[in-house]
Amino acid sequence: MNIKQKSFQKNTNSRQFIIVAFTPEQAKLAALEIQKLKPQTTGISFRDFQIKAQIHAGGRDKGFFKEHPQQSGVQVVFSPEEAEELASKMIGSTLITSQTGFRGRYTSAVLVSERLFLRKELFMSISLNAEKGGINIICNDKGFISTDERQNKTTKQHFVTLQDGINKEKMQQIIESFNLDKTYNEQLKNIVGQLFQCFLQNDATYLEVKPLGLTIDGQLIICDQKIQIDDNSAFRQIELASIEDIRQKDEKEIIAQKNFLNYIALDGNIGSMVNGAGLAMTTMDLIAQRNGSPANFLDCGGTADSQQIIAALKILANDKNIESIFINIHAGITSCDIIAMAIIKALSEVGIKKPIVLRLKGKNFEQAKQIIYDCGFNILVTEDLIEATDKVIKTAQILRMAREAKININLLS
């Protein structure tokens, strides 16, 4: 569950003036409201504004809108009128970034804030450490961190247990990670402490501040941040769950969530339905390694019932990007023949017109194979994972080449 910047702001003592606007008119009014306030940076007599598209993905400043390719997701404007004009291009449009894929994310709101002038940018994140059963706090005095930079000299990692929290010694270590003069220690102590409490109180799995800015007059201000809330805590975090913008989610993701399926949309053309997250990841990796392109991650779990299988197949059937479907099931708790009958029931209801490769492995495979053959559906069945992967990739390639050549072919009986 991802939460907008404004909701996060209330749990910290950041002084940046920010207002979320859902219409261009609201963006103009927000800029006018901010304009009335005294500039936060001493010595600055003018007021510029920063407009940020509110989507659940990073890379907004380097992204572009599908409807307005020249516009990025983060821009500076110099008047309330410009704020209104820019917001009219952002709100209701689809922002594409390095994290969204080509499908992009719908922009339902923008965040209007005062433009700040910074001497230095810092980075801080708080995340769960499942392996050690605690919390990681990562600090960087450069204001930005990528996966490759986590081990560099300027990045410091601190482990905190839930029992001990951030004690005096640990707090001092975290503060020193930012390499600032001691005059900023009290500000850092307050910010780090409140961010840590925000993380705990909201059942967060990840919290990031990028950047924590040092202004030219010596104020530390949280300039941009994001927080991810554990979906399992929705019953406890009722207020946060109520403000989640489900329009940020793919329609297929909403269907999957309602049916307790783990689903993530990707940009490929080979759909997959797998029982078990580990096997699903392996299936995606194998498709990619053998020159295929996975269209999704879809884990229906080890004990999926026929209703869940129907929902999963509907998701794949309605995805226009998918050209062939790979069902990869390892029968453990439930035998292959029972799974085969559930799949046939689902196919009868859904009416899929896309070619399917079914890989079954486990108890009663031969009986399941016969059930599939007798059902009348044109499904390629195999017990071999590599063979199944190659078949689904080749099927997708044939269909794609035919479509590009504008040739109509039917791989179904």
UniProtKB/TrEMBL annotation:
<keyword id="KW-0547">Nucleotide-binding</keyword>
<keyword id="KW-0816">Tricarboxylic acid cycle</keyword>
<protein>
    <submittedName>
        <fullName>Uncharacterized protein</fullName>
    </submittedName>
</protein>
<dbReference type="GO" id="GO:0006104">
    <property type="term" value="P:succinyl-CoA metabolic process"/>
</dbReference>
<dbReference type="GO" id="GO:0005739">
    <property type="term" value="C:mitochondrion"/>
</dbReference>
<dbReference type="GO" id="GO:0042709">
    <property type="term" value="C:succinate-CoA ligase complex"/>
</dbReference>
<keyword id="KW-0460">Magnesium</keyword>
<dbReference type="InterPro" id="IPR005811">
    <property type="entry name" value="SUCC_ACL_C"/>
</dbReference>
<dbReference type="Pfam" id="PF08442">
    <property type="entry name" value="ATP-grasp_2"/>
</dbReference>
<feature type="domain" description="ATP-citrate synthase/succinyl-CoA ligase C-terminal">
    <location>
        <begin position="273"/>
        <end position="391"/>
    </location>
</feature>
<dbReference type="Pfam" id="PF00549">
    <property type="entry name" value="Ligase_CoA"/>
</dbReference>
<dbReference type="InterPro" id="IPR016102">
    <property type="entry name" value="Succinyl-CoA_synth-like"/>
</dbReference>
<keyword id="KW-0809">Transit peptide</keyword>
<dbReference type="InterPro" id="IPR013650">
    <property type="entry name" value="ATP-grasp_succ-CoA_synth-type"/>
</dbReference>
<dbReference type="GO" id="GO:0005524">
    <property type="term" value="F:ATP binding"/>
</dbReference>
<feature type="domain" description="ATP-grasp fold succinyl-CoA synthetase-type">
    <location>
        <begin position="32"/>
        <end position="212"/>
    </location>
</feature>
<dbReference type="InterPro" id="IPR005809">
    <property type="entry name" value="Succ_CoA_ligase-like_bsu"/>
</dbReference>
<keyword id="KW-0436">Ligase</keyword>
<comment type="pathway">
    <text>Carbohydrate metabolism; tricarboxylic acid cycle; succinate from succinyl-CoA (ligase route): step 1/1.</text>
</comment>
<dbReference type="GO" id="GO:0006099">
    <property type="term" value="P:tricarboxylic acid cycle"/>
</dbReference>
<dbReference type="GO" id="GO:0004775">
    <property type="term" value="F:succinate-CoA ligase (ADP-forming) activity"/>
</dbReference>
<dbReference type="InterPro" id="IPR013815">
    <property type="entry name" value="ATP_grasp_subdomain_1"/>
</dbReference>
<keyword id="KW-0479">Metal-binding</keyword>
<dbReference type="GO" id="GO:0046872">
    <property type="term" value="F:metal ion binding"/>
</dbReference>
<keyword id="KW-0067">ATP-binding</keyword>
